[in-house]
Amino acid sequence: MMWGNPLGNNKIPTIAELWKNEKKQYRIWIFSYPILLALLAILLGVRLFLNFDIKSFGLVSSILSILFTAATLFFYIISLFISYKEKDFSMIGNRSFFVNLVAFSLSVLSIVNSTIAIINDLNTGDKNFALILAIQIILVSLIFILIPYFYTRVLKIKSIFKLSHSIITFEQQISELKKDPQAFSKFMNIFDLNQDVANLSKNGNSANFDFDASQDLEQNNKKPRTKNEKIKITLEKLPFTNLHEIAKKLEISGYQDLKKQELIELLTRILAQQENKK
């Protein structure tokens, strides 16, 4: 498996543990992405130097795409230095991804426009025909295949480290709760299957449940389950909005982007770990 997925192990990795994979798993994506951005800016500049589609709408879009791509690269490199200084990729590209979206849109516009111009105006007898055609093919490959592919890998690395940060924050909050046994017990009772299921949906609409509580509890009593299974079953009974409320209270960043089952798995692992430490 290429990615060091924090949810794939029994123990959720810390930032320090994730950083051990920097050279083996992350470095190729982290450094290849800015190289591709630089190549994109250079090739767009070379195309302008060849005066192809000059005095056209393509000129404006090409210049703007070069400027925004350069800005993206600049902010990314700054975040790269900070990330290696802190040994933490959760902040990689914090200032560049919005600019990158604008740069990507302008680059797509420029490449589409120039491709149309090539089809309509460029002749095989032109002096720079072969060079312009080669540059255009490389640009299309960069903007539609390579850059999006490497961009998503960088985002995934970033999300893995941010998830680990969320877990650390959660554990700190649990530690604070443990200082007040009554408050901690009240919090953990949310995940106790022995209490009335109706109490689980105090903050939600109980009509959203599509199961019979008494039958489910009776079945659980017949088949003893591990704490992990009990927590997971209880979370699965909660509406998605309730899971979001729990994640929000625990300050788990990025929970809005997780699917219901992914959020359930995350909460199950975190809560099970805390139970094992009790």
UniProtKB/TrEMBL annotation:
Residues 234-276 form the Rho termination factor-like N-terminal domain. Keywords: Membrane, Transmembrane, Transmembrane helix. One of its GO terms (biological process) is DNA-templated transcription termination. Pfam families: Rho_N. This is Rho termination factor-like N-terminal domain-containing protein. SMART domains: Rho_N (SM00959). SUPFAM superfamilies: Rho N-terminal domain-like. The chain crosses the membrane at residues 28-50, 62-84, 96-119, 131-152. Coiled coil: none annotated.
